[in-house]
């Protein structure tokens, strides 16, 4: 039993150290930001939750069928994956685009200005097969949609 | 002729203006290695794109190195008329920037 308890303590300790390390590195990185508006913490985050938290201040999103993601089912080249996002909602403030399995999941954020229509498209890089996730902030709430994209590196066409 | 890094097409349909643009930029993530030297290629990507129409901000977009090389961006907005000017400017993480403008057709 004593060994078990020790193991628990050890695991807890190492986990805590891990989070502290992440926090410290995030703190060190912050002053280097070249562009003030650029959300360094969100873009450098290694996990989906961290990225969402830093970018939008929350991790919980409501799945919504009003958001449409247009992306290929199979992408032959992970370096160029065309993605379009449109949302059939009013009062959209921002759209965040994430690729779940990327090293840094947050790819882009789009903040709507005067008369902005939630309809954006771009081309992103995807490291691996995974979900493309769009998080739309409308009226203070977060809505999300996801679409799985298979990436076949090697370009044999799957 | 100076080399332009942004190409813009802006088209008005109904009351919605759709803008498509292409930028020329290497978009290095900072994770790739140089094949010859084995060293990491430093990150070099567009971090902010700002679009204005008729002097009003219509879109501010922040990017990471996860956007493809020579990025393509399309977006839409309302409240502009034919002949209005759309201005797009980008800033990258190494302090470079460029801007271009086009008239809405």
Task: Summarize it.
Chain A has three helices and nine strands. Chain A is α+β, with helices and mostly antiparallel strands and 158 residues long.
What's the layout of helices and strands?
The complex is a heterodimer of chains A (158) and B (105).
Chain A (H helix, E strand, L loop, with lengths): L1 H28 L10 H5 L3 H9 L5 E2 L3 E4 L3 E2 L5 E7 L4 E8 L6 E7 L3 E9 L5 E9 L2 E11 L7
Parallel strand pairs in A: 1-9, 3-9
Antiparallel strand pairs in A: 2-4, 4-7, 5-6, 5-8, 8-9
Chain B lengths: L5 E8 L2 E8 L22 E8 L2 E8 L8 E7 L6 E8 L4 E7 L2
Antiparallel strand pairs in B: 1-2, 2-5, 3-4, 3-6, 6-7
Defining traits:
heterodimer, A: 158 residues, Immunoglobulin-like, 6-stranded mixed β-sheet, 3 helices, 9 strands, 27% helix, 37% strand, B: 105 residues, mainly beta
Q: Regions of chain A with pLDDT < 50 over 5+ consecutive residues?
A: 17-36, 154-158
Total beta strands of chain A: 9
**Order of helix and strand elements from N to C terminus of chain A:** HHHEEEEEEEEE
Which protein chains make the most extensive interface, counting residues with beta carbons within 8 Å of the other chain's beta carbons? A-B, 34 and 37 residues
> What about the largest sheet of chain A?
6 strands, mixed
Per the CATH scheme, the topology name of chain B is: Immunoglobulin-like
Count of the separate structural domains of chain A: 2
Helix content of chain B: under 10%
Please indicate the percent range of residues of chain B in DSSP E strands (runs of 2 or more). over 45%
In CATH, what is the class of the largest domain in chain A?
Mainly Beta
**Mean pLDDT, all residues of chain B:** 86
Could you give the distance between the termini of chain B? 24 Å
Give the SSE order of chain B as H and E letters: EEEEEEE
Kindly name the structural category of chain A: alpha+beta
From the alpha-carbon coordinates, what is the Rg of chain B to the nearest angstrom?
Answer: 16 Å
CATH superfamily descriptor of chain B: Immunoglobulins
Provide the β-strand percentage band of chain A: 35-45%
**CATH architectural designation of chain B:** Sandwich
- Care to count the β-strands of chain B? 7
Query: How many DSSP helices of chain B?
Result: 0
């Amino acid at each position: 039993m004593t060994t078990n308890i020790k193991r628990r303590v050890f695991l807890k300790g190492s986990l805590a150290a891990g989070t502290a390390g992440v926090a410290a590195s995030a703190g060190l990185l912050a002053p280097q930001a070249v562009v003030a508006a650029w959300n360094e913490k969100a873009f450098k985050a290694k996990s989906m939750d961290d990225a969402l938290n830093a970018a939008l201040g929350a991790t919980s999103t409501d799945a919504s069928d009003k958001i449409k993601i247009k992306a290929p089912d199979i992408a032959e080249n992970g370096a160029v994956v065309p993605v379009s996002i449109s949302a059939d909602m009013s009062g959209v403030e921002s759209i965040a685009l994430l690729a779940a399995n990327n090293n840094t999941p947050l790819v882009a954020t789009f903040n709507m200005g005067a008369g902005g229509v939630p309809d954006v498209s771009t081309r992103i890089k995807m490291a691996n097969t995974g979900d493309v996730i769009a998080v739309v902030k409308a009226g203070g709430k977060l809505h999300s949609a996801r679409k799985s994209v298979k990436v076949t590196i090697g370009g044999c066409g799957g | 002729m100076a080399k332009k890094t942004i190409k813009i097409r802006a088209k008005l349909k109904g009351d919605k203006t759709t803008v498509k643009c292409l930028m020329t930029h290497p978009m290095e993530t900072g994770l790739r290695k140089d094949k010859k030297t084995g060293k990491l290629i430093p990150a070099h990507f567009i971090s902010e794109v700002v679009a204005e129409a008729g002097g009003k901000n219509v879109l501010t977009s922040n990017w990471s190195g996860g956007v493809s090389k020579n990025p393509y961006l399309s977006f839409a907005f309302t409240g502009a008329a034919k002949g209005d000017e759309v201005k797009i400017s980008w800033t990258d993480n190494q302090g470079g920037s460029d801007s271009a403008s086009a008239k809405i057709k």
